Amino acid sequence: MTNRKRIKELILPYIVSIIAIILTLIPIYWLLITSLKKKKDSFTRPPKFIFEPTFENFIKVWNNDFYAQTIFNSLLITLIGIIISIFIALLCAYGLKRYKIKFKSAFMKWLLVAYMLPEFLFVLPMYSIYQSLGIYDTHFGLALMYQVHVLPFSIWMLRSFFDEIPSEIDDAALIDGCRPLTTLFKIYVPIVIPGIVATSVLNAIWMWNELAIAIGLTFSEAHPVTLGISQFRGYASIDWGGMTASSVIALVPLILFSLFAQKHIVKGLTLGSVKA
């Protein structure tokens, strides 16, 4: 029994991992093969797994000026959003580590609550404010609104990384005459680069895939790629070839970014544990 139990303990994690991988790859596989099918092949019953592939859906999507613009919009919005969230989160996380702040625990709990609230809850009150400020339907306005979700997450993540750094580093920097901002950007930031990259990638994935806020705070100029994909859904019909092809194209930047930053992501996610 002992040997059987040990075998189960060794094999079970692999079985669970294989099942998880399969369940993750099935939707991506289905998305890819549908994007390569002709319209008549997309609706056959039973589904065709052997067919003549075509790239006409990708050509149609790529020649769509509106969709190309949404790709650019999402890249710009995501970049602005990452810069804002990481800069503010670095300052906040460093302040939480270095200074004794009243109600620190309550503040961290509030960030967690804010992170869990539905995104669309903030759109209605901000709609009129954005209109009056002139940032409605702008890249900056959408990136700023995304901070409601990504900023609490960024603070939690970076604070956990900062907690892994010995406090003696602060004392040594203070003795050397370093100001707090100098200590942060010249000492702390180089140490937690993996954590910054991991947080940036996870934020980028969320902002790239967000739809609810984009529907409420954009009209025509700042549509992200999620709205670019939704244009292939008509009133009474869906262009499955166009929708799946546009979805595959939208996956490419995130996959490339994640592969490029993979080493930092793994190191960053294992650098520390999230602490309250």
Distance between the termini: 41 Å
Q: Pairing-aware structural class of the strands and helices?
A: mainly alpha
CATH superfamily: MetI-like
The count of domains is: 1
Number of helices: 15
Give the overall pLDDT as a whole number.
Answer: 82
Task: Please state roughly what percent of the residues sit in beta strands, choosing from under 5%, 5-15%, 15-25%, 25-35%, 35-45% or over 45%.
Answer: under 5%
- What radius of gyration results from the CA coordinates? 23 Å
SSE string, helices as H and strands as E: HHHHHHHHHHHHHHH
* Structure summary, number of beta strands: 0
Q: Kindly identify the CATH topology.
A: MetI-like fold
| Helix proportion range | over 70%
Report on the biggest sheet: none
CATH level-two architecture: Orthogonal Bundle
Would you kindly provide a brief summary of this structure?
This protein is mostly helical and 276 residues long. The protein has helices spanning 2-35, 39-42, 56-62, 65-98, 104-116, 123-133, 139-145, 147-162, 168-175, 180-191, 193-209, 212-217, 225-230, 240-260, 262-269.
Chart the SSEs and their pairings.
Layout: H1 2-35, H2 39-42, H3 56-62, H4 65-98, H5 104-116, H6 123-133, H7 139-145, H8 147-162, H9 168-175, H10 180-191, H11 193-209, H12 212-217, H13 225-230, H14 240-260, H15 262-269
Notes on the protein architecture:
With 276 residues, the chain is mostly helical. It is 74% helix and 0% strand. The chain has helices at residues 2-35, 39-42, 56-62, 65-98, 104-116, 123-133, 139-145, 147-162, 168-175, 180-191, 193-209, 212-217, 225-230, 240-260, 262-269. The longest helix is centred in the first third of the chain and has 34 residues, at 2-35.
